[in-house]
C-alpha cells in the first residue's frame, strides 16, 4: 500500500516534469516570429512651405536596397506630414525622402551634386560630403514604432 502510493506519487511527479518540459520547449521554440509584420509611424517635419509639392518616400532594407517607394501630394503650405509604414517583414529599415518642388519626380541637384530640394533621412544624420551610409540611417523596427525625420 505504502509502496504503491509511492509509485503513483512518482508517476505524478514525472508527469508534471514532462509537462514542464513540454512547456519549456514550446516557449523556447517561440522565436518572435520570422514572419511577423512590423509597423512604423513617421512624422516628417520642416517641409518647405510651398503651394504645391510632392513628398517621395523610399524604404530600404538593411542591405540598402529600395523595397518600397511612395509619393504623397502635400497639402498647400504643409510643413509637416505623417506617414505610416505598414506590415513590413524587415527587422530594420532605412528611410530616404525628398520634397519634389518642381514636379519632375526627381531630387534636383546643383553642379556639385548637392541637393537643391529638401531631403531627409531616418535618424537625421549630419550631412557633410554626400549621402549617409545605409547603416547610419537604419531603424530597428523591433525596438521602435515611431520616428521623426527633419527635412534638410
Ligand atoms: Ca525635383
Explain this structure to me?
There is one protein chain. With 152 residues, the protein is of the alpha+beta class. The protein folds into 2 domains: 1-30; 38-150, Immunoglobulin-like (Sandwich), CATH 2.60.40. The chain has 1 helix and 8 strands, in the order H-E-E-E-E-E-E-E-E. The strands form 2 sheets. Strands 2, 3, 5, 6 and 7 form a 5-stranded antiparallel beta sheet that branches. It has a 3-stranded mixed beta sheet with strand order 4-1-8, with no helix packed on it. A hairpin with a 5-residue loop joins strand 2 (54-60) and strand 3 (66-73). The radius of gyration is 26 Å and the shape is elongated. It starts with a helix and ends with a strand. The model has no long low-confidence stretch (mean pLDDT 89). Bound molecules: calcium ion. Calcium ion binds next to loops. Calcium ion binds at residues 100, 102, 104, 106, 108, 117.
Structural class: alpha+beta
What fold name stands as the CATH topology of the largest domain? Immunoglobulin-like
Strand content: 25-35%
Bound molecules: calcium ion
Total E-strand runs: 8
Rounded Rg: 26 Å
Shape: elongated
Q: Report the biggest beta sheet as strand number plus sense, adding barrel if it closes.
A: 5 strands, antiparallel
Low-confidence stretches: none
For the record, the CATH architecture of the largest domain stands as Sandwich
Report the total helices: 1
What separation lies between the terminal Cα atoms? 84 Å
Q: Please give the CATH class of the largest domain.
A: Mainly Beta
What is the total number of structural domains? 2
Mean pLDDT: 89
Helical proportion?
Answer: 10-25%
Write down the secondary-structure element order.
Answer: HEEEEEEEE
